[in-house]
Amino acid sequence: MNEVIAPSTPTVEIYARKYPDVPMEVILKEDLLRLGLSITPDGLAVAKGKRQQAYYLFSYNISDHQEMGEEMSTGAPEDIIFRDGPYGLRRTSVRVVLNDKSPYALDVQDGKTVITQNGVVVADAVYPDKPAYYGRTFDDGLKYEQVVPLLYNSYAFVTTFRACHYWGDKEECRFCDINYNLREIRRLTGEHVTADAIKDSDKVVGVLGAMVDEPDPANRLITIIMTGGSIVRKVKGGPDNAADFNAPYVAAIRERIGHRVPIVMITESQPMDKLRVLRDAGITCHNANLEVWDERLFKWLAPGKDHYIGYDTWVRRLYDAVGVMGEGRVSPNMVSGIEMAKPYGFETVKEAVASARDGFETLMSHGVIPHLDTWCIEPGTRLSENPPVSLDFLIQADIAWYETWRKYKLPPFEGYGPMGSPGVAVYGNTGSVDMGG
Ligand code: SF4
Questions:
Q1: For ligand 1, is residue 172 a contact (CB within 6 Å)?
Q2: What ligand 1 atom has the least distance to the C-alpha of 175?
Q3: In the beta sheet, which residues pair with residue 93?
């Protein structure tokens, strides 16, 4: 006899029966990342004085700023921890994706901050505290968090070049809203938002200095992630490539803070001589984001990357980069779920997972550890009309990633903090880091 499932049963419970070997934390995290959440007025009130969204590069939200209203758009916490609740979940870090039509909400019930699904509590929620240096200002009035925000209580997120030279329909990646988001930010007035396209090196170094000097272990800096848009021509009359543009920032940061924490540099694919420039300046890891394994989909989804570099060169350089940087230090992002993007993506979960698994297998066999970021379907992108990513795909991709990672006995990808078991990981953008245990 089939089991009867009440209509109000939360998704995490239904999927835990379907995937009994997958931690419930992974299921809830992936569902929150793909569907986002709204925040009730009580839930928003709790966010006052907490670390709030800083719009660091992409909007990373499903609802746009107008739809949410500025109070929500600028008042929401950047990321949260969920834990306990009716399922006794272990503490799990997740990025806050705002979607005012989501079945999930941050709310306050019986004096506790919680996550609900259609009004049913699924977990307790903890908002992030502000570190002591948030609110400090430079002489021109710019706040520290406007220059470098803190993510997950432990990552410095540095966007040196906040635009992308891949421009327009023929070049911009179809899932990316970097240039749209910069235009949006310039229309916002939120005081923690800054729209400077190019970050001032002295200010970046100043904030990172304050971050490494932070005495509170709860907000201890464990990594610096540096990223920005692609560079294909001179920026303000200076360097015409991402390596030469970023190397002086890296050298200045290393001079101030030393080598204790890793620097993850994310740029478009670089030739090995340029990669060595970055390595010698002081980066620890280099991630040239491949985004999707299937070549046909790469050409469609990332036309600028295909035009300026090409799929074969991109992949070959990833293999070569392991020889320069070492295993665990080449970890390109894959947009998990984009495999099923309409209208040209795979039509079934089975085909999409098979393609993703093929990519994990091939890349990991060369010592490249792709890392997954769950696709956030942002309103300013060419794929904004797509339905939410399949939860089955996300869970099965996480399983495939974890099995392949174990098979090749690879280390955690460096610069993203601990991973490999629920309750351990810090990275909030994928459930794959919470697999295992
Ligand atoms: S290369 Fe693609 S994903 Fe990266 S910033 Fe440019 S458009 Fe966005």
A1: yes
A2: 3
A3: 81
CA-based R_g, the chain, Å? 21
Is 266's C-beta closer than 6 angstroms to any atom of ligand 1? no
Residue 365 φ/ψ region, left for φ over 0, alpha for ψ in the -120 to 50 degree band, beta for the rest: alpha
By DSSP bridging, strand 89-95 and strand 150-151 are unpaired
Residue 135 burial (C-beta neighbours within 10 Å; 0-12, 13-18, 19+): exposed
Contact 403, 367 (CB under 8 A): no
Using CA atoms, how far apart are residues 353 and 21, in angstroms rounded to an integer? 18
Q: Is the CB of 178 under 6 A from ligand 1?
A: yes
Is there an atom of ligand 1 within 6 Å of 164 CB? Answer: yes
Instruction: Answer yes or no: is the C-beta of 124 below 6 A from any ligand 1 atom.
Output: no
Residue 247 phi/psi, 5° resolution? -55, -45
In this prediction the pTM is 0.95
Contact 293, 303 (CB under 8 A): no
pLDDT tens digits along 332-385: 999 999 999 999 999 999 999 999 999 999 999 999 999 999 999 988 899 999
How remote is the CA of residue 305 from the centroid of ligand 1, in Å? 8
3-state percent helix, strand, coil for the chain, nearest multiple of 5: 35, 15, 45
